[in-house]
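Subject — a protein and its fold
Fields — amino acid sequence, C-alpha coordinates
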Amino acid sequence: MVLRKLKERLVNWLLNGVRINELKVVKLKIGNRTIYILSDRIRLAGLTSDPTDLVAGDVWLRSDTGKIKYTPDGSAVSEMATAPIQSGDIADGAVTTAKIADGAVTTAKIADGAVTDAKITGPISPSKIGQGNLNLGTGKLTCGQVQVGDILMKYGWKIVETERELLFIKNGKVVYKIPA
Protein backbone atom coordinates (compact mmCIF):
# COMPACT_ATOMS: atom_id res chain seq x y z
CA MET A 1 0.00 0.00 0.00
CA VAL A 2 2.87 2.41 0.79
CA LEU A 3 4.58 1.57 -2.50
CA ARG A 4 1.37 2.23 -4.38
CA LYS A 5 0.93 5.66 -2.77
CA LEU A 6 4.55 6.49 -3.60
CA LYS A 7 4.01 5.53 -7.24
CA GLU A 8 0.86 7.67 -7.40
CA ARG A 9 2.71 10.70 -5.98
CA LEU A 10 5.60 10.21 -8.40
CA VAL A 11 3.29 10.02 -11.42
CA ASN A 12 1.35 13.08 -10.23
CA TRP A 13 4.63 15.01 -9.75
CA LEU A 14 5.88 14.01 -13.21
CA LEU A 15 2.61 15.00 -14.85
CA ASN A 16 2.12 18.21 -12.84
CA GLY A 17 1.14 21.00 -15.23
CA VAL A 18 1.04 18.73 -18.31
CA ARG A 19 -2.04 19.18 -20.48
CA ILE A 20 -3.31 15.72 -21.35
CA ASN A 21 -4.28 16.60 -24.93
CA GLU A 22 -0.61 17.40 -25.55
CA LEU A 23 0.80 14.33 -23.78
CA LYS A 24 2.24 11.78 -26.20
CA VAL A 25 3.17 8.45 -24.67
CA VAL A 26 4.43 5.50 -26.69
CA LYS A 27 5.17 3.18 -23.78
CA LEU A 28 4.23 3.64 -20.16
CA LYS A 29 6.11 1.40 -17.75
CA ILE A 30 5.16 1.27 -14.10
CA GLY A 31 6.58 -1.43 -11.87
CA ASN A 32 7.49 -4.67 -13.61
CA ARG A 33 4.52 -4.58 -16.03
CA THR A 34 4.54 -2.63 -19.29
CA ILE A 35 1.46 -0.97 -20.79
CA TYR A 36 1.62 0.32 -24.35
CA ILE A 37 -0.63 3.26 -25.16
CA LEU A 38 -0.84 3.53 -28.93
CA SER A 39 -2.89 5.81 -31.15
CA ASP A 40 -5.49 3.12 -31.85
CA ARG A 41 -5.30 0.72 -28.88
CA ILE A 42 -3.92 -0.02 -25.44
CA ARG A 43 -1.87 -3.18 -24.94
CA LEU A 44 -2.26 -4.52 -21.41
CA ALA A 45 0.35 -6.64 -19.69
CA GLY A 46 -0.91 -10.20 -19.25
CA LEU A 47 -1.58 -11.47 -15.73
CA THR A 48 -2.04 -15.08 -14.71
CA SER A 49 -4.12 -14.28 -11.62
CA ASP A 50 -6.49 -11.52 -10.58
CA PRO A 51 -4.93 -8.62 -8.62
CA THR A 52 -5.58 -8.60 -4.88
CA ASP A 53 -5.50 -4.81 -4.39
CA LEU A 54 -8.60 -3.97 -6.43
CA VAL A 55 -9.78 -0.41 -6.94
CA ALA A 56 -13.07 0.49 -8.63
CA GLY A 57 -12.48 0.84 -12.38
CA ASP A 58 -9.43 -1.45 -12.61
CA VAL A 59 -9.13 -3.35 -15.92
CA TRP A 60 -6.65 -6.16 -16.63
CA LEU A 61 -5.93 -8.99 -19.04
CA ARG A 62 -5.74 -12.58 -17.87
CA SER A 63 -3.33 -14.03 -20.43
CA ASP A 64 -3.87 -17.56 -19.10
CA THR A 65 -7.62 -17.46 -19.87
CA GLY A 66 -7.66 -14.87 -22.67
CA LYS A 67 -10.27 -12.82 -20.75
CA ILE A 68 -10.33 -9.11 -20.04
CA LYS A 69 -11.54 -8.54 -16.49
CA TYR A 70 -12.60 -5.48 -14.52
CA THR A 71 -13.97 -4.44 -11.16
CA PRO A 72 -16.76 -1.88 -11.16
CA ASP A 73 -16.73 -1.37 -7.40
CA GLY A 74 -13.31 -2.51 -6.17
CA SER A 75 -14.54 -5.86 -4.84
CA ALA A 76 -16.58 -7.76 -7.45
CA VAL A 77 -14.69 -9.06 -10.51
CA SER A 78 -16.43 -9.33 -13.88
CA GLU A 79 -15.35 -10.53 -17.31
CA MET A 80 -15.79 -8.52 -20.47
CA ALA A 81 -17.14 -10.44 -23.44
CA THR A 82 -14.16 -10.97 -25.74
CA ALA A 83 -15.91 -13.23 -28.24
CA PRO A 84 -19.47 -13.76 -29.45
CA ILE A 85 -21.64 -15.20 -26.70
CA GLN A 86 -22.39 -18.88 -27.17
CA SER A 87 -25.58 -20.53 -25.92
CA GLY A 88 -23.58 -22.43 -23.29
CA ASP A 89 -22.39 -19.10 -21.81
CA ILE A 90 -25.94 -18.02 -20.93
CA ALA A 91 -27.64 -19.23 -17.77
CA ASP A 92 -31.03 -20.92 -18.14
CA GLY A 93 -33.80 -18.32 -17.98
CA ALA A 94 -31.35 -15.39 -18.27
CA VAL A 95 -32.64 -14.10 -21.61
CA THR A 96 -36.19 -12.84 -21.24
CA THR A 97 -38.52 -11.11 -23.68
CA ALA A 98 -37.74 -7.74 -22.07
CA LYS A 99 -34.00 -8.23 -22.74
CA ILE A 100 -34.44 -8.85 -26.48
CA ALA A 101 -34.83 -5.67 -28.51
CA ASP A 102 -37.83 -5.39 -30.80
CA GLY A 103 -36.91 -6.75 -34.22
CA ALA A 104 -33.62 -8.22 -32.94
CA VAL A 105 -34.40 -11.82 -33.92
CA THR A 106 -34.38 -11.95 -37.71
CA THR A 107 -34.89 -14.81 -40.14
CA ALA A 108 -31.13 -14.95 -40.76
CA LYS A 109 -30.57 -15.57 -37.02
CA ILE A 110 -32.97 -18.55 -36.90
CA ALA A 111 -31.38 -21.80 -38.03
CA ASP A 112 -33.16 -23.77 -40.75
CA GLY A 113 -35.47 -26.30 -39.13
CA ALA A 114 -35.14 -24.67 -35.69
CA VAL A 115 -38.82 -23.71 -35.33
CA THR A 116 -40.68 -26.85 -34.35
CA ASP A 117 -44.38 -27.71 -34.63
CA ALA A 118 -44.80 -27.14 -30.89
CA LYS A 119 -43.79 -23.48 -31.36
CA ILE A 120 -46.45 -22.87 -34.04
CA THR A 121 -49.93 -22.53 -32.56
CA GLY A 122 -53.21 -21.17 -33.83
CA PRO A 123 -54.23 -20.59 -37.40
CA ILE A 124 -51.65 -19.73 -40.03
CA SER A 125 -52.78 -16.99 -42.36
CA PRO A 126 -52.53 -17.52 -46.13
CA SER A 127 -50.05 -14.65 -46.35
CA LYS A 128 -47.64 -16.69 -44.20
CA ILE A 129 -47.85 -19.65 -46.57
CA GLY A 130 -47.20 -17.44 -49.59
CA GLN A 131 -47.63 -18.26 -53.23
CA GLY A 132 -45.75 -21.56 -53.11
CA ASN A 133 -46.94 -25.14 -52.83
CA LEU A 134 -48.44 -26.45 -49.62
CA ASN A 135 -47.19 -29.98 -49.00
CA LEU A 136 -49.14 -31.78 -46.30
CA GLY A 137 -47.34 -35.05 -46.87
CA THR A 138 -49.64 -37.73 -45.49
CA GLY A 139 -51.21 -35.22 -43.10
CA LYS A 140 -54.78 -33.97 -43.00
CA LEU A 141 -55.89 -30.39 -43.67
CA THR A 142 -58.71 -29.28 -41.38
CA CYS A 143 -60.29 -25.88 -41.82
CA GLY A 144 -63.60 -24.07 -41.72
CA GLN A 145 -63.60 -22.78 -45.28
CA VAL A 146 -61.20 -22.88 -48.19
CA GLN A 147 -61.22 -20.08 -50.72
CA VAL A 148 -59.23 -20.86 -53.81
CA GLY A 149 -59.50 -20.41 -57.53
CA ASP A 150 -59.70 -23.55 -59.60
CA ILE A 151 -58.66 -26.72 -57.77
CA LEU A 152 -56.31 -28.85 -59.83
CA MET A 153 -55.89 -32.51 -59.00
CA LYS A 154 -53.95 -35.47 -60.29
CA TYR A 155 -54.86 -37.42 -63.38
CA GLY A 156 -56.46 -34.49 -65.28
CA TRP A 157 -59.18 -33.59 -62.75
CA LYS A 158 -60.13 -29.98 -62.03
CA ILE A 159 -62.88 -28.41 -59.86
CA VAL A 160 -64.14 -25.01 -60.95
CA GLU A 161 -66.65 -22.87 -59.08
CA THR A 162 -68.84 -20.49 -61.07
CA GLU A 163 -71.58 -18.15 -59.92
CA ARG A 164 -74.25 -20.75 -60.84
CA GLU A 165 -72.59 -24.12 -60.30
CA LEU A 166 -69.66 -26.24 -59.24
CA LEU A 167 -68.06 -28.06 -62.16
CA PHE A 168 -66.04 -31.27 -62.05
CA ILE A 169 -63.84 -31.46 -65.12
CA LYS A 170 -61.77 -34.40 -66.39
CA ASN A 171 -59.24 -33.83 -69.18
CA GLY A 172 -60.95 -30.54 -70.22
CA LYS A 173 -64.54 -31.95 -70.32
CA VAL A 174 -67.28 -31.23 -67.75
CA VAL A 175 -68.12 -34.57 -66.13
CA TYR A 176 -70.47 -33.41 -63.36
CA LYS A 177 -72.27 -30.18 -62.32
CA ILE A 178 -73.64 -29.23 -58.91
CA PRO A 179 -76.05 -26.29 -59.11
CA ALA A 180 -75.58 -23.41 -56.63
About this structure: The two ends are 97 Å apart (CA to CA). The CA atoms of residues 157 and 170 lie 5 Å apart. The chain is about 10% helix and 25% strand.
